[in-house]
Amino acid sequence: MQYTDRVLKELKERNPNEPEFHQAATEILEGLRPAVERHPEYERAALLERFVEPERVILFRVPWVDDGGNVHVNKGYRVQFNSAIGPYKGGLRFHPTVNLSVMKFLGLEQVLKNSLTGLPIGGGKGGSDFDPKGKSDMEVMRFCQSFMNELYRHIGQDFDVPAGDIGVGGREIGYLFGQYKRIRAEHAGVLTGRGLSYGGSLVRTEATGYGLVYMVEEALNCRGDSLKGKKVVISGSGNVALYACEKAQSLGAKVVAMYDSDGYVTDMGGIDLAIMKQIKEVERGRIREYAARKKGAEYHAGCRGIWGVPCDVALPCATQNEIDARSAELLVKNGVVCVGEGANMPTTLEGIEVFQRAGVVFLPAKAANAGGVATSALEMAQSSGRMYWSFTEVDAKLKQIMVNIYHNIDDAARLYGVEGNYVAGANIAGFLKVAEAMLAQGIV
Ligand code: NDP
Q1: Is the CA virtual torsion 290, 296, 300, 305 positive or negative?
Q2: I need a labelling partner for 249 at 20 to 30 A (CA). Which of 25, 229, 237, 390 fits?
Q3: Which of 228, 232, 191 lies closest to 209 in space, CA to CA?
Q4: Is the C-beta atom of 312 inside 6 A of ligand 1?
């Protein structure tokens, strides 16, 4: 049996009931095949076996008290996946769907994504099955404090630096940081995505969405095309989606549909971002309210239908497995030319195949959404240097990083005989650096 097949088989046997982890590992190891075949030394060093096993998994209890005095218990996780090229780095997700499988899939993806940024950061991920939706600020604060009461002993500015993800934005990072500082009595750059008044970086809020659009624009430019005049559909209406919308619009695209977990809105005249931000960022409301406020906009219950809205560019920016083969076929039939993944693993393996067969430019998450973590690394650099860079400076660095990533994955795909296959290109380009560092550091 071939090395890659054996590792995948053993991974599935040793980690049963972890479908998301199996899916991510399959996508990654399949993409790595051409590189693994050229490097027989990987098998001798059991490199793939070590690569798919997290260095450390921390599971903990998070008890907290709601406003009515009732006690609740959630699960807390931190998966410290790989520190070969730098301190563990990756977000915290608070969502009811969080479990070990989801944490491990995100952690493994993060290792390669962080490597692709070209910056010295290893990969990790964490979170909880706590749902911040519908909770008061004080409940969220008590939860975050309890979460940090355990997490603090496992993180550090040179060891493991968490950030936000689904359900963890500026408010949550503030509460987590406040508790860390109180326990450890140190004002350290131990979390990124901090507020600007206490060590955060300009552009961090916008980074993932902006970065995604910078990469899409570069991919189109390299084909003599651009976002100008393109119709764009964006799933989600959270941090990544809102800023992808902002940047796409600023480059002349028209965003015609967005969603939250209840349903989607279409607005053929183009989404009015000011109204959308007011509802989602300020009021923390539901997307159906957009249709009530914007003339000509329509609300449709349920999410999947959004992929039937005709568009040139699709940017899935909500969560994993949003686009299956059927949705992908619909997008292709309606003429999509480029799909950029803002969310992590939003397209199923079958969906990816549909896009690749149809010749759609498919930019996978670990490359396309790396702008967030890249800017987090820039935040770490500013923290260490005790300085702030201007918006223009950080934005220019972000854009350059995204353009570089695009060309790295494009070159890697060509070099390994799979031209235009950016899934393979991203996996290979990210992995080679991690593999080199792991080999240099011995069997650890
Ligand atoms: P937010 O919590 O800000 O927004 C998430 C959005 O997705 C919301 O609109 C939410 O709707 C929707 N959503 C979440 N889960 C589901 C679901 N199961 N079905 C339908 N809709 C859903 O998260 P972010 O914008 O930060 O993250 C979005 C994605 O981007 C995630 O995959 C994340 O891992 C990835 N990512 C984020 C980065 C960042 O910097 N923030 C960096 C790199 C990747 P509702 O409000 O109804 O829940």
Answers
A1: negative
A2: 390
A3: 232
A4: no
pLDDT in tens, 151-193: 999 999 999 999 999 999 999 999 999 999 999 999 999 999 9
Q: Which atom number of ligand 1 is nearest to the Cα of residue 369?
A: 43
Range of the domain at 336: 207-363
CATH assignment at residue 264: 3.40.50.720
Which is it for strands 313-316 and 298-301: parallel, antiparallel or unpaired?
unpaired
Distance CA 257, CA 298 (A): 9
Report whether 168 contacts 127 (CB < 8 A).
Answer: yes
Q: Residues of 324-353 as b/e, b for ≥16 C-beta within 10 angstroms?
A: bbebbbbbbebebbbbbbbbbbbbbbebbe
- Give the tens place of pLDDT for each residue, 316-355: 999 999 999 999 999 999 999 999 999 999 999 999 999 9
Give the residue carrying structure tokens 């902002």. Answer: 246
Residue 368 lies in a domain: no
Q: What is the pTM of this model?
A: 0.95
C-alpha 181 – ligand 1 centre gap (Å): 27
CATH number of the domain within which 64 lies: 3.40.50.10860
β 56-65/71-82 pair status: antiparallel
Q: Which residue has the tokens 């030394």?
A: 41
Testing ligand 1's pocket by substitution, the residue of 260, 280, 282 carrying the most ligand atoms inside 8 A of its CB is 260
d(CA 304, CA 306): 5
Ligand 1 contact via 369 beta carbon (within 6 Å): yes
Amino acid letter for position 165: D
- Structure tokens belonging to residue 157: 């500015």
Residue tagged active-site, from 125, 231, 280, 366: 125
Residues 168 and 256 in one domain: no
Distance 414 CA to ligand 1 centre (A): 32
- In angstroms, the CA 291 to CA 78 distance is 39
* The length of the chain, given as a count of residues: 444
Output the residue whose Cα is nearest ligand 1's atom 29: 343
* Strand partners of residue 347: 323
Query: Tokens 């919308």, residue?
Result: 245
